[in-house]
Design brief:
Helix content: 25-40%
Structural class: alpha+beta
Number of domains: 1
CATH class: Alpha Beta
CATH topology: Glutaredoxin
Order of helices and strands: EEEEEHHEHEHEEEEH
Strand content: 25-35%
């Protein structure tokens, strides 16, 4: 389903269907491609606002502290923003991130393809255009399983609740939801 406005086209992603294509550069110097991921259960793609967002730094620090929990559940994680390489490196340093894979350079077109909400910068530290936070889980076969798309910096999935829920979901082979 496409919703057309005077500003942009925005897809409504459908659970159980293939995730949109996604390729980004990472701070490790590699190109990360969703199509090349082979997790035991899910790939977690977390979109964050960028270096200007202190809530993003807190959230990604929490995610890094829980990476081992998610890895034990068979989940690989990446966090991606529209920031360039220098700003992403600055973000990594400021947030003291060591193990979380950080992707950068997401374009507005890619943000829209994933159905992310975009905001114009209103304050000095904000970029001209950036995405609001979102978290997706993609099954190992490339189908979307979960989407949580926020409109503000404080609209985030509780990572403890997510981990607990995924323990149940994986053990029960829980079906796709939101498909009707």
């Amino acid at each position: 389903m496409m919703i057309e406005t005077d500003r942009a086209l925005s897809p409504k992603l459908l659970m159980g269907h293939p995730a949109p294509e996604l390729k980004v550069q990472t701070l490790s110097g590699n190109t990360w491609s969703l199509a090349e991921q082979t997790p035991e259960n899910y790939t977690m793609v977390l979109f964050y606002r960028g270096v200007h967002c202190p809530i993003c730094a807190q959230y990604l620090t929490q995610l890094e502290q829980k990476l081992a929990t998610f890895e034990q559940l068979g989940i690989n994680a990446i966090a991606i923003s529209g920031d360039d390489q220098d700003k992403t490196q600055q973000f990594k340093t400021q947030a003291n991130l060591k193990n979380l894979t950080l992707g950068y350079g997401l374009t507005p077109e890619e943000m829209r393809r994933w159905g992310l909400y975009l905001s114009k910068g209103h304050f000095e530290k904000e970029p001209k255009l950036f995405s609001e936070p979102a978290l997706f889980l993609i099954k190992s076969d490339g189908r979307l399983y979960l989407a949580d798309i926020g409109t503000h910096p404080f609209s985030r999935v509780d990572l403890d609740l997510l981990a607990k829920g995924l323990e149940f979901v994986i053990a029960a082979n829980y079906p796709f939801r939101g498909t009707e």
